[in-house]
Design a protein that fits this description.
395 residues; mainly alpha; hpI Integrase, Chain A; 2 domains; two-stranded antiparallel sheet; 49% helix; 6% strand
Length: 395
């Protein structure tokens, strides 16, 4: 079985045997060109041999290319699952071919996840297959392999007909890989006002405030968790109803959101109430102060984790009788804002609703934002009215 070992911090000289104590004392002074941080995943085979190409792939993307910790975790999960499958079937990584990748994909189609016990989503399957193909392209490019049937253009299937230029997705690169399953992206289903109010009223602190930030600003979870106290300090101007908050977007891109003054008031009350009490209690129990920069902390005084926040939102939604996810909160903001901007544009306002929402959501492509426009049409009953009109004209 493939093992994942997290890189730990250097030991104190008093924690090692006497023979190694001098080396442990010298180790902190050793300068490395590209040091791997504490917690960096190292993959080993069942015989405890380091899987060097996998570690080198993760090192390049995280240390050299400075991808985020979420990207590192995602790539590590893909490589772990792939090398675990190869080891169970007795296949060498440098000898894997199309048959092995198709079998890997089909196993996820027919068997539930060993981690969750639920069937794999098509998006998850395609994500892992693309991750494997990306790894072999990298292995050939960096000369870990001379060649591979899983690298280059050999695995691509080009359709004979050309995409129509008038198609809405004509500018988007289309994935024709034989290994990737056909996937349809569902339209977002925003929460209605009653559901949003019930969810916010049921959530415990600080998750209720975090959900308000997503509903009022459209922040992603990763962007929300990166907020610091200094980012949301109340401006001195109190007559303004909205304030611009600088944020770090996905991929470390700078951006901003527009937060209502009422949301900053609630955040200030949380900081002086729950947050201060939790940090003081944590400092009293641990004998040291917790990180004072993080905005959202839990009752133990620790920084709120992504998985914990998502679980609370999901379970609270189930208790309220409807589906709720952190992404659904973000989608609700986009749909509500877009619907309001469409009304203003119809009334003669010189605005482009899609471009405004695109900027505030931090989207790279306008096609992503257009999904919310189509969702509004479905939720508003526009398509239903069209169908009723067509059916009434049928003799």
């Amino acid at each position: 079985m493939v093992q994942v070992v997290r890189k730990s911090a250097l030991p104190d000289p008093s924690e090692v045997i006497d023979r190694l104590a001098p080396a442990a004392a010298r180790a902190p002074a050793v300068a490395l060109r590209e040091p791997r941080p504490t917690g960096f995943p190292l993959l080993f085979t069942a015989q405890w041999q380091l899987i060097e190409p996998a570690v080198a792939f993760l090192h390049e993307h995280f240390v050299q290319r400075a991808h985020t910790i979420d990207t590192l975790r995602t790539y590590a999960e893909v490589l772990y699952d792939w090398f675990e499958t190869l080891e169970q079937n007795g296949v060498r990584w440098d000898g894997a071919d199309a048959v092995d990748l198709v079998a890997y994909r089909n196993r996820m189609l027919t068997q539930p996840s060993a981690h969750t016990g639920r069937p794999y989503r098509i998006a998850t399957i395609n994500h892992r297959v693309r991750g494997v193909l990306r790894f072999y392209d990298w292995a050939v490019r960096t000369h870990w392999l001379v060649a591979s049937p899983l690298a280059g253009t050999e695995h691509n299937f080009r359709v004979a007909r050309q995409l129509r230029p008038c198609s809405a997705d004509a500018s988007r690169p289309t994935d024709h890989s034989l290994f990737v399953l056909r996937q349809f992206e569902p339209l977002p289903r925003p929460l209605v006002s009653e559901q949003a109010r019930e969810l916010l009223a049921t959530l415990p602190p600080p998750y209720d405030l975090m959900a308000r930030w997503q509903l009022y600003t459209g922040l992603r979870v990763s962007e929300l968790l990166r907020l610091c106290v200094q980012d949301v300090s109340k401006p001195s101007v109190r007559t303004v109803s909205h304030h611009t908050i600088e944020v770090i977007r996905k991929g470390r891109k700078p951006g901003y959101v527009v937060a209502p003054a009422s949301l900053l008031d609630e955040t200030a009350a949380y900081r002086s109430g729950h947050r201060r009490a939790w940090l003081q209690r944590a400092a009293h129990r641990r004998g040291r102060a917790a990180d004072p920069a993080a905005l959202f902390v839990n009752a133990r005084g620790a920084h709120v984790g992504k998985n914990a926040y998502q679980r609370v939102i999901s379970r609270t939604g189930q208790a309220c009788g409807f589906k709720a996810t952190t992404h659904l909160l973000r989608a609700t903001f986009a749909c509500m804002l877009l619907a309001r901007l469409e009304q203003l544009a119809s009334a003669g306002a010189a605005i482009n609703p899609l471009m405004v929402v695109k900027v505030l959501m931090g989207h790279e492509r306008i096609e992503t934002t257009d999904r919310y426009l189509r969702a509004i049409a479905v939720e508003a009953g526009t398509l239903r009215e069209v169908l009723d009109t067509l059916l009434s004209e049928v003799p």
